[in-house]
Amino acid sequence: MGKRLFDLAAAGLGLVLLAPVMALIALAVKLDSPGPVFFRQQRVGRYGQPFRIHKFRTMQHRPADAGRQITVGADPRITRVGALLRSSKLDELPQLIDVLLGHMSLVGPRPEVPRYLAYYPPAVREQVLSVRPGITDLASIEYRRESELLAASSDPERTYVEEVLPAKLRYAQQYVEQAGFWTDLRLLARTLFVIVTR
């Protein structure tokens, strides 16, 4: 209950304080390329419940590309504004809405797309999905250059499934086992530090 109250208070305050910034970002996204301001994609939430995550759109709006699940290196679909939003992580700000809706938490394992859930070992899946997914976690920090790592691979999909995903799951398990108010504060502080000193 305490974690949920903290999430509600912080997300609500964040949306109020960041409203002018988010409005400017929305305008920049709209002016930079045709398409919606937000990118919405189905993710898997707590107890395996699906939800649609909110992000600022960072790629050209191409419905035909909807099936592509990972971003590799300097993806040509990324817009000029999108590249800036991705590098600064500002594209993640709309997920404060998902926190208010109860789909996400500020801190928790990042929500995965449904197709990769099949690669979760059953016991790991149950453990990781026992908590709300988060905007940030240790895996997000350690793999903040994930697209560059995948770009260096001759088979990005295989590298993600066999190397990146198992490592992320280990971080997720570690979080679930150590979850607490101070753990969340440390991860939030570390996330802000990484963003500011990128």
From TrEMBL:
Which N-terminal stretch is annotated as signal sequence? Answer: none
InterPro entries the UniProt entry points to? Bact_transf
Q: Name one Pfam family in it.
A: Bac_transf
Which keywords does UniProt give here? Transferase
> Example GO molecular function term?
phosphotransferase activity, for other substituted phosphate groups
Bacterial sugar transferase domain: which residues? 3-196
Similarity comment text for this entry: Belongs to the bacterial sugar transferase family.
Q: Per its record, how is this protein called by name?
A: Sugar transferase
| Phylogenetic lineage | Bacteria, Pseudomonadati, Pseudomonadota, Betaproteobacteria, Burkholderiales
